[in-house]
Amino acid sequence: MPPSPGESVEERVSKLERRQEEAIEEAPEQPLPPSHGMSLEQRVSSLEQWQEAMDQQFKQQQQQLEEKDNQIMRRAAEFDNFRRRTEDDKDKLKFRQTCAVLREILPIVDTFERARKALSPEKLETLHAVDVHQDYQGIYKQLVSALKRLNVSSMKVEGQLFDPALHEAVMREPSHEYEEDVVTEELQRGYHLDGEVLRHAMVKVSMGPGPDLGG
């Protein structure tokens, strides 16, 4: 450390000794250099060497602290990633469990659907039968409403291009109404849960040739 202009040796020694005392509090393990039997110049040189050693030690400690800070930041990031993965796994598990329960319920909905189509009011002969049909329809509507509250939605498939991610082709037949690979009929309704496929729709698919546009 170069002396300040006009600074005497005694002042410089005094300043270095004050810095010694301050540094001792931060790094008490570094012993003070001996000063007995030394001239002022020797004491200055010894104190400067001691100060350089203290500065080097401080830099090393600062580097160690920075490394520890970096380690803490890495551990925090790893923990945050682990927490997010755990939450994602919980959400996926919950979704799979919900799907499993709903897949058990959907066949009941299918039965109601078939009965609704077979037992139209005009086919019922007695007033009692009409009442039974209305009660039956009421139960069906409650079931559909419950599915909607669970974010279950039915697919609209007829007239759509066949998509194996959504549809399961049970039959293929020629059609003059629909182009090739277009769904012509829904055989069993498909459903989404929160935008994900809960059950594929079973469909009939056109083999073409489609409408005769030249006619």
From TrEMBL:
Biased composition (Basic and acidic residues): 9-22
GO molecular function, one term: protein-folding chaperone binding
Signal peptide: none
GO biological process: protein folding
The keyword Chaperone is annotated on this UniProt entry: yes
Subunit structure: Homodimer.
Function: Participates actively in the response to hyperosmotic and heat shock by preventing the aggregation of stress-denatured proteins, in association with DnaK and GrpE. It is the nucleotide exchange factor for DnaK and may function as a thermosensor. Unfolded proteins bind initially to DnaJ; upon interaction with the DnaJ-bound protein, DnaK hydrolyzes its bound ATP, resulting in the formation of a stable complex. GrpE releases ADP from DnaK; ATP binding to DnaK triggers the release of the substrate protein, thus completing the reaction cycle.
Protein name: Protein GrpE
Organism expressing this protein natively: Candidatus Synechococcus spongiarum 142
Gene: grpE
